[in-house]
Amino acid sequence: xxxxxxxTGGAGGIGEAxxxxxxxxxxxxxxxxxxxxxxxxxxxxxxxxxxxxxxISDSQQIRSALTSAGEIDLLVNNAGISEIxxxxxxxxxxxxxxxxxxLIGAMTCARTxxxxxxxxxxxxxxxxSSMWGQVGAxxxxxxxxxxxxxxxxxxxxxxxxxxxxxxxxCVSPGFIMTEMNSRFSEEDLELIREEIPLGIFGEPRHxxxxxxVAAVLNGYCDQDEEILIHLRGGDLxxxxxxxxxVLMTGPAAFICDGTVDDDYIKEAKEGAVCRS
Length: 276
Hints:
Blueprint: E1 4-7, H1 13-24, E2 28-33, H2 37-47, E3 50-53, H3 59-67, E4 74-77, H4 92-120, E5 123-128, H5 132-135, H6 141-161, E6 166-173, H7 186-193, H8 204-217, E7 227-232, E8 235-240, E9 245-250, H9 258-270
Parallel strand pairs: 1-2, 1-4, 2-3, 4-5, 5-6, 6-7
Antiparallel strand pairs: 7-8, 8-9
């Protein structure tokens, strides 16, 4: 029987790439969406998965949908929204929506699937954060705060769930070319590009590969360690524990050349990349 993975925000961008990669790795994928049901259904048919529609900001809908989905072995909290505006001009409604979808929704999804994982003493939760959750972004204060919260949530839950042999990891991408980031002007994009070591933007497939690596690494890490994967052009670091000990390092090619991706997953499966 295939292991079941649920991916929120799975119908497009990073989520779609994660769903495709997990399907390649042998998972039965549940593509969770809020409004793109037809796109989710089409992707489900293509990869042999299932589409599941619910509002990620509604805790009751989350519990009802995920409870009916079966025994979920892997949860990828990917759903997220942002708003580019100065902090004082963001409406209370928009600020609440950002926090409810990006952070509270992810926590509710985890809270829903955890009892089953705990009873089986097996499972993995991967939260998709952002580099802005680490360094902050002007005009995206609420988004940055929600993503920083997701990193803190990952670290705390990882410690709490370790005795039950459940891993909680976090992938923190840099600037990824998705529909959400298509609003930036060419001038803004050039300014962002100047801050990236390789001068290139990441793609959804790079985050998908990092997520697959995080899932694979679960079998090779000590139970009391959480993983934070930080992806940026020219830099891949997977670190764990508060002292920043390096668990895995990789070349810049990892996020700009797809030919490297599968090698990393193969090495992770063999345990070759786990070194302190």
